[in-house]
């Protein structure tokens, strides 16, 4: 199998896992934003991270479109991108009448042609991207001069201490998903099997995931699952800026391979990865329980990076 074919298979699997989460995704407080207090908290945060608009905003890995809707309500022109068609269907329904559009596609290579944006937003996406360094590099190229990345991320587990948690990522993709220590966790979600050593169990902490828990991961040799051991933590400078066969160098970004940031990425590591790409970065810790609909005990933050 060629590298490119392998990548396609891996991405298809990731999309299927997320599709399986679509029906229940919005049940998590920070996903559906159904509680007015949670919704208002995210709206206020977004307003604080973005300059005055209206702006062209690209929401990558937009899921069911909850943040995209807040942005559209603030007057911005929003384009969402998500790999999972069922997530996209929900986002399109949620955004109907706002003028926002939602595309099915790989956020690592957003299918936006020559369009350029003032802001790229990604919440809880990087942990599930096979080559996050290459994606960051591409994203900066989609920004207009003076544009900014707004990256809402977290570190839900470490290779040495993968705790049950899960944040709704596809199984032990290890993100804010059902299993491998993501801040989320849908114990009853599709999948739910820890899927191997990196897996953890059905998320007991809950969090931003609520995703397709599952058994797709945990195999350090393959599967869109999460062996975070090849991660960038501790070596953020190494290997960033490309994926295998591309512009090269994210560890673990091969076909069906590991997710370098499974389990999430610390703010320090993300800032280190961004440093060669942007003019400045600001980190906003996000410990406020109102954002998550519950108390949290792991690292959550936003990085605002200006090019
Ligand atoms: C944890 S959810 C976050 C959704 C949304 N950003 C939010 O905060 O509510 C991750 C989303 O990223 C999508 N996703 C995962 N990998 C992707 C990729 N390579 N390209 C586009 N979307 C992807 C999944 O389908 C899922 O909808």
Automatic annotation (TrEMBL):
InterPro entries cross-referenced by the UniProt entry: Methyltransf_11 (IPR013216), SAM-dependent_MTases_sf (IPR029063)
Gene Ontology molecular function terms on file: S-adenosylmethionine-dependent methyltransferase activity
Region spans: Disordered: 157-263
The keyword S-adenosyl-L-methionine belongs to this UniProt entry's keyword annotation: yes
Methyltransferase type domain span: 58-151
Comp. bias regions, Gly residues: 165-257
Keywords, ordered alphabetically: Methyltransferase, S-adenosyl-L-methionine, Transferase
Domain of life: Bacteria
Pfam families: Methyltransf_11
Biological process (GO), any one: methylation
The name this protein goes by in its record: Methyltransferase domain-containing protein
Presence of the UniProt keyword Transmembrane helix in the record: no
């Amino acid at each position: 199998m060629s590298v490119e074919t392998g990548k396609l298979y891996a991405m298809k699997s990731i999309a299927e896992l997320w599709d399986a989460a679509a029906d229940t995704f919005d049940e998590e407080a920070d996903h559906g934003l159904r509680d007015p207090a949670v919704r208002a908290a995210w709206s206020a945060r977004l307003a604080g991270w973005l300059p005055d608009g209206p702006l062209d905003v690209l929401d990558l890995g937009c899921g069911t479109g909850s943040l995209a809707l807040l942005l559209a309500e603030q007057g911005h022109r929003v384009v969402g991108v998500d790999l999972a068609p069922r997530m996209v269907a929900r986002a399109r329904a949620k955004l109907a009448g706002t003028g926002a559009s939602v595309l099915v596609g790989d956020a690592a290579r957003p299918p936006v042609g020559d369009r350029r944006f003032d802001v790229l937003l990604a919440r809880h996406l990087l942990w599930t991207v096979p080559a996050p360094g290459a994606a960051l590099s591409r994203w900066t190229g989609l920004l207009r001069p003076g544009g900014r990345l707004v990256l809402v991320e977290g570190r839900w587990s470490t290779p040495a201490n993968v705790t049950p948690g899960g944040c709704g990522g596809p199984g032990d993709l290890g993100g804010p998903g059902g299993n491998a220590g993501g801040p989320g966790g849908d114990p009853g979600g599709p999948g739910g099997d820890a899927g191997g050593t990196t897996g953890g169990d059905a998320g007991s902490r809950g969090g931003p995931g609520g995703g397709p828990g599952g058994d797709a991961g945990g195999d350090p040799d393959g599967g869109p699952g999460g062996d975070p051991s090849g991660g960038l933590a501790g070596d953020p400078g190494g290997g960033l800026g490309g994926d295998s066969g591309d512009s090269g160098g994210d560890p673990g970004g091969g076909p069906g391979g590991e997710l370098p940031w499974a389990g999430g990425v610390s703010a320090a590591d993300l800032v280190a990865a961004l440093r060669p790409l942007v003019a400045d970065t600001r980190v906003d810790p996000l410990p406020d329980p109102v954002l998550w609909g519950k108390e949290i005990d792991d690292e959550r933050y936003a990085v605002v990076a200006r090019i």
